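Carbohydrate-binding module family 1 protein
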Amino acid sequence: MHHFSAALVVILVGTASAVVQDWQQCGGKSWSGDSQCATGSGCVVVNDYYSQCQPGAVPQPEPQPEPEPQPPAATSIVLPGTPVATNAPSGTGPGKTLQSGYYWIRGVAAPNFHKYMQTKPLYSTGAALLGDYTTAGQFQIVDSQLVQLVSGAGEKPEKLLYGIVSETRYINNMSLSVTFSEAKNSYGKFAWNGDGLTWSVAGLQRPNAAAWYVCTGQQMYINLGNYLYQTPAGCADQTIHYYNDKTANN
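Predicted structure tokens:
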């Protein structure tokens, strides 16, 4: 009996898994190594063949569901601070030819490949969303503001709407809604990183400043958490990029 117990201990020790250190591989297709990350880290899928231990990517208790901001309508409950869309457009729109100094902004990965940023109703205050290329909006960053051109082509002075980031968190308590308003944004700054659209704010460190969610109704949210990790049901991870061809295309 004594010899049997000693052998069992040896077997158990020999099969114990080692802890994978931060930023090392912990999974992927054909991966046969260890997968247990150190305390305080989680195994994040980077692609089909490579997963990585990332600090802070630990499962969190499921938060109580927060109400999603709804596209403004006569029968909708409008969240505090959400701009209310008017029945008439805020502008006639610049048309389907890209105006000088502006960009199209679009997703480049499934399920939103070549879906373009816009508002609904078009050229009006309301939620930011990714939609069809035929109704794409035209955008630029001016003094850290994300602006949408809503006046007609060649119309002076130009009429703009501003991308507004909500300070209220939604969905998984790690998402900020983005809407467009005639007033300027006062929470955080937009910027280009290469051709990618980013957002940052003092005092809040994001693992990926270019991480977005596209959720129910194609509405866009800023993802405050790790990209491609614990994606909320009904949402897709996305990065979005400017495109400066003369016309939008699919």
